[in-house]
């Protein structure tokens, strides 16, 4: 497993990391690892068109932008 050393980390930031780690009952290293993992998560965004059911077939041939414009115009 790799080791990461961070130089010149501001004291204020380190204290915030310590406080958050304590709240989550983790070490500072565990909390930094969790935060980096969450920040770098490259999961593709979900699309409603990938859902099963829920009327997906109703949206196949619909121009979403035009539909939204019509919906917004209806409220004016």
Shape: elongated
| Number of H- or I-type helical stretches | 3
Strand content: under 5%
The H-and-E topology, N to C, reads as HHH
User: Roughly how much helix do the residues carry, as a percent range?
Assistant: 40-55%
Largest sheet descriptor:
none
Query: Terminal Cα separation, in Å?
Result: 59 Å
Structural class: mainly alpha
Mean pLDDT figure: 87
Low-pLDDT residue spans: none
Radius of gyration: 23 Å
Number of strands: 0
List keywords for this structure.
mainly alpha; 76 residues; single chain; 0% strand
Describe this structure in words.
The chain has 76 residues and is mostly helical. Helix content is 49%, strand content 0%. The protein is built from three helices and no strands. Helix 1 crosses helix 2.
Strand and helix layout:
Blueprint: H1 11-23, H2 28-39, H3 64-75
Summary, kept brief:
The chain has helices at residues 11-23, 28-39, 64-75. By secondary structure, the protein is mainly α.
């Amino acid at each position: 497993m790799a080791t990461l050393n961070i130089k010149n980390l501001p004291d204020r930031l380190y204290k915030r990391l310590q406080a958050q780690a304590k709240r989550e009952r983790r070490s500072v290293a565990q909390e930094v690892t969790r935060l980096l993992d969450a920040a770098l998560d490259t999961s593709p965004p979900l699309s409603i068109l990938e859902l099963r059911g829920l009327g997906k077939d109703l949206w196949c041939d619909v121009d979403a932008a035009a539909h939204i414009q019509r919906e917004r115009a209806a409220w004016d």
